[in-house]
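Researcher: Batch entry, complex prediction.
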Amino acid sequence: MEPILEVKDLTMDFGGLRALDHLDLEIDRGEIAALIGPNGAGKTTFFNCITGIYIPTRGDVVISPPGKKRERINGLKPNHVTERGMARTFQNIRLFPSMTVLENVMIGRHCRTRSGIAGAVFRGPGTREEEQAVVDKSYEILEKMGLSRFVNELARNLPYGAQRRLEIARAMATEPFLILLDEPAAGMNPQETYELDQLILRIRDEEGISLLLIEHDMQLVMSLSDRIFVMDYGKKIAQGTPEEIKNNPVVIKAYLGEEIDA
Amino acid sequence: MLKLSNVESYYGNIRALKGIDIEISEGEIITLIGANGAGKTTTLMSICGVVPPRHGEILFMGRPIHEMSPDRIVALGISQVPEGRRIFPFLTVTENLDMGAFLRKDKDGIKKDIEYIYELFPILAERRNQAGGTLSGGEQQMLAISRALMARPKLLLMDEPSLGLAPLVIRRIFGIIEKINTENRTTIFLVEQNANLALKVAHRGYVMENGRVILSDAAQNLLSNEQVKKAYLGV
Amino acid sequence: MKIQDIKESFFIAAWFILLTFPIMVIQVNPIENIIEWRWWNLILVGAGSFMLSFVWRYLMNRKAGQKRKESEDAEDIPLTQRLLRNPRFFVPALIVLGVFVFAFPFLFSAYQINIMTTALIYVVLGLGLNIVVGLAGLLDLGYVAFYAVGAYSYALLNHHFGLGFWTVLPVGAFMGAMFGVLLGFPVLRLRGDYLAIVTLGFGEIIRLILENWNAFSFGPSGIANIPRPGFFGVDFSLEASSRYLYFLMIAMALFTIFVVNRLQNSRIGRAWIALREDEIACQAMGIDKTKTKLTAFALGATWAGMVGVMFAAKTTFINPASFTFLESAIILSIVVLGGMGSIVGVIIGALVLILLPEYLRAFSEYRMLLFGAIMVIMMVFRPQGIISGVRRTYQFKGKGDKAVKTRETVKQPAPTTDHS
Amino acid sequence: AAQEGPIKVGVAGAHSGDLASYGIPTVRAATLVVEERNEQFGGIDGKKIELLVEDDVCKPEIATNTATKLVSDGAHVVIGHICSGATKAALGIYNDQKLVTMSPSATNPALTQSGDYPNFYRTIASDDAQARLQVDYALKEMGLKKLAVIHDKGDYGKGLAEFAKKFIEDEENAEVVLYEGVTPGAVDYSAVVQKVKRSDADGVIFGGYHPEASKIVMQMRKKKMDIPFISDDGVKDDTFIKVAGEYAEGVYATGPRDTSKNPIAKKAVEQHKAKYGEDPGAFFLNAYAAAMALLNAIDVAGSTDYDGITKALQSEFVATPLGIIRFDERGDAIGIGFSMYQVQNGKYVELEE
Amino acid sequence: MDWEYFFELLLGGLTRGSIYALIALGYTMVYGIIELINFAHGEIYMIGAFTALIAANVLTMLGMNELAVLVLASVVAILYSAAYGFTVEKIAYKPLRQAPRLSPLISAIGMSIFLQNYVLLAQTSDFLPFPSLIPELEFMEPIAHIISSAEVIIILTTAVVMILLTLLIKYTRIGKAMRATAQDRSMAMLVGVNVNRVISTTFVIGSALAAVGGVLIASHIGMINFYIGFIAGIKAFTAAVLGGIGSIPGAVLGGMVLGWTESFATGYVSSDYEDVFAFALLVIILIFRPAGILGRSTTQKV
Ligand SMILES: Nc1ncnc2c1ncn2[C@@H]1O[C@H](COP(=O)(O)OP(=O)(O)OP(=O)(O)O)[C@@H](O)[C@H]1O
Ligand SMILES: Nc1ncnc2c1ncn2[C@@H]1O[C@H](COP(=O)(O)OP(=O)(O)OP(=O)(O)O)[C@@H](O)[C@H]1O
Ligand SMILES: [Mg+2]
Ligand SMILES: [Mg+2]
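Model: Structure tokens for the complex:
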């Protein structure tokens, strides 16, 4: 197994509060991994730290994009992290509400295209081609995500579940090797959650993108994940396959509770 | 206790509610389920007057409230756990709870209730002086629920209270829902995606689709209704 | 219902009588120690506010009613937009407009040409600021500084080195951009209204330096005898040179519209809009926040610099008094009043706001009073601006097909003050 | 050229905005003069005189619009503009159209001295003339050696101060110990006053208008600084005395000579009070004089012909509130003497030389 | 170092800063609650001063004694400013609650132009002498050449007002309602806050403060005209932002910093560039503290 993301000793302090506590974690290529833990355990903070939104107090984040060099990315700005191939969604949906659905995805193509001001003004053949490619590629992604009927809708007018999927579509447009999903199933009903499940599998299988998701919906986590990491109070308290985690007494005590509704 | 008849509400010129009839009696737990964008949130916001209905009538304990301003409606004893939590970001946890009790005058009672909340959610007690905006998603959700409880409402409207909560906490929340319903006789109007859970605690349920109520029945019946099963319970 | 209205209007009239009593009725002359009581005004205010309250109520009801009327399925596109999209209307309209624009200076007096030229200057300024405020969402209250930079570039380069209009035009644009970057670097990490005050401060700094640094800028007495743009050495009469300037400005405005339109629908333009909507999400999508903002700022400033050169050439005299904060406020008003992010809107906004005070000259001293009132009323009854922005939409035939047609239809609600 | 219809006199200046108080008195003066003329003589040669009043807010770019408007509306002569900057911007347009323009208040020396504006006249002394008088008075009459020169950063005030500074520096035994601009409208000038105190100046020369002057004088006197304060025409205004009250005592200001005894001036002020119920404001008499001079020139020339008016202005003396005046080729008024005034017992008193 | 000179500049800056602060308080309150840069605030201040001038003249004519004139004129000014503030909010801002972010800003600019010209037309364009309503206190006589009674009163008033406002916002019911409304308007409704009333109250308090400022400052300076509000407004806005907009102590601190900067810049460099220094300082402070000196940090949790 070749790890594509290695996190070592990651620590994040907010004033006196230690939100991440010497956290170690690895994601392998082609894996769907899940990060679970009680509320306030530091899961979202973990995402923020590895994507450059927060600068961690200490620790290392190293990526090894397939076919590219290993690279340490702590301290990089979020846009550089994305350029290097790690894309994410947000726990509270952050779309561009008054842009259309297609444009939201087109924004995702920004870091994979180059045309500048001169190109925009003169609109030479190069720019036109690039623009056409952006549109086509974005539409293609929307079709894959089952959002093509909304192309020209404003993002804010979409139903909640569709907005969640759009966020994923937008992340996919950046051509990542790893997508980080923060509670993708929140606010979805079981039917939609099931569809999401299928979608995530397809993303992995068809696009070869690895995924790390934070989720409280255990049914989804257990059915999807190859590997699960469990956090509590900023520390990693367990890691393993769904079976192992389900039966891990520490996890049951801290997070799952006595019985699982799965 | 609460009666909506033929309620229509709009966002600008989008008709989000297309004539809704709902009735809730005192002491009931009612749940409203439906797909995304069905208009559940809009229904709650219309009751509270934030999205005032353009047509139809809403009676609360016999009084028409559809033309009242939100603060007056709230003063009648309705409080809400809104969608998206809506924590006051720069107020501390304690201040947020305090705001929940804005219309209450009994200082001691408020104090006691805050302590009670801290017992229910120890994590909030740990964070009591932290600004609401920096809480984690789940912590905010707990705070939003607690804030609504602080009002000691007669009717509690809850919009997806389980959103973003850990399984353990969800169970605790549903425990609390049943508890305040039986102990304080608080009427509860619950909107949930987790229809399984919701229908288990509820007495009756309504199913919404596309701005209309398409089905209403006792919770048990809905649980076993094929149509509902297929669409909302995920087999 | 009617009685209710009258009652309410009576109450409003009484309130305004009370409110305006000291200022409208009593005129003190502390120098002579006389007090004059102008009771007549009381009646004027009372009657005036009584009448106006009916108009206000009518308009308010209409505003509310308008929303209601449109049924649930009606396409949410304003009439203007529908007309603009319909080629059967659009093409002839464009031709008529073109003919009118061309014939204008031959039909009207020098004065009319002159104010139209001024209005065109503001069209370009508005479009430039629209990049910064309307597209990138950066509230710039000191835009006039870049305008000053352009104007002084021409005046000074001409004064000291005898450089001509055409030479300085690109220089002015470049200087504008330079200053845009200069200001942009330190301040672009500021948010919303903090950025507003800093840009306001920057605008004032530029003006104050021009005012105080006599050795450099000739101070408050300004620079006179700036030559009008040349045309292969031809000497023009006043009339002819007004026309020439007018056509120059038309050309410049068309050029601006062309460029801004292309920018708006480009990769950069999308990034600006996205940045306005959500900075964090934008960064997470791989957009370099600083660089993108800086381009917006610099590009906006470029137009101001360029048109500043034009301004100096048109007035032939400049001094710092032309570059006050109020000027920035007016340009901003053009953008917002016209409709943020909409090119047509900004053009109409500029024409309205700049021509209005000129045509209000008939009201002599009530001119600015009315101007202020109209600004308020336009915002109250048309908060989204005269023309609201639209988003480009794409048509797709089916799976795997290329995008076939692009047009603009989806109405873009400007960002609201939402606290969520 | 002989023409039909009324004679049109343009009046341009700031009638709204922050500088309105300097422009409105001119409109009133022109109105009074023209009304009187129309009533008493039925206009000029049987033609009624009409006013075209246009606002320029003292902004150059608006002034060009104002000027083209006046030109388009067929003005024959123009009274205005008020601010030197706006005047300069507008003059090019009037010059192209051969329109005589006369400002009651634009004092920038270049307007007459540069030779760029042959159509321009004014009924106010230029900055350098006033500055000359201020400096001469301070150095020769009062024997001051160390002067603080303060201005309000404006066109008028700063222009004047620049000249004063130059004139002082040209003298052997005097020096400028402080040269400083204050921000008009600021709430407080104590820092500048402290600075004057520290500079050890034995006199202050001020260029600017009365609101700033009164604030500075009051703060100086409150801080027990009794050095002479010599200011300009912009301060020679009764409002100054009223505002500064007891602190105004002893303040010097230059102004047009002996208007208080001039019967025309008295009449003009009376007319103003009768019609507008208050004392006239800034540059009222200058504007009154300008209106009279222009009407007289048209009368003498027998037409509104540019050359005729020019000739009449430069050759014919006319009695105005400012004295009996005519204009030199450059456009400055001859016969408007300037005197030094001092506030004594709450009144400006002309100091005999 | 010339300590006396330094000290005098310090005091001068303090007075000037207090003046800015007094107006900035109203600014910051209004901004805090509806995130609107209320450009008409300066005009409310101007109207307060005008009303006080008119009232004082009428009352003096009626033969009242000085103290009565001071008190009554101030009360009239406060009432009227509050009423103007209230009315302006109702006409120009309330209909724009749901509007795009910048629309109320333009409405405010229009309102400011309107009010200026209203006073210009109804009263006069000239400067009017403003009676020195604040009496020269006997016991202040020995130090009167350093600091006048009026200045002391301005400084004290600012301090008192700041403390009262801080207490109001921190501890009273209406204060809590204000904070909630500021942070999330519709959620505030949902906990029972009457948002319209809270916003109106904020405008009324802010405008009343502007009137207090108007009376004190006008009698300190000794004259007013219709345009004084504009410059005061810009300076107050700067002060409010400098201190951290929305923060009451911040507005006062911002005012002070601004006052001192201008005073020292004039004293040690040149008053030619006092405003340049003031704005340059603003830029520098905001670069290092992007939310102002006392402003809360704007970093957002995502
Ligand atoms: N900017 C911040 N300032 C202070 N504390 C913070 C900040 N961001 C997060 N925290 C704290 O750090 C802890 C971890 O938060 P985080 O959002 O990572 O939790 P989480 O695991 O995502 O929880 P949830 O499942 O509820 O979303 C929380 O207790 C939160 O209060
Ligand atoms: N602020 C808004 N502006 C415009 N349309 C809106 C707005 N909020 C909701 N809508 C529309 O109203 C309809 C009903 O939305 P509502 O939020 O009530 O649905 P919901 O049943 O609560 O869905 P969810 O499960 O996603 O919360 C949807 O079609 C939605 O697009
Ligand atoms: Mg989280
Ligand atoms: Mg909902």
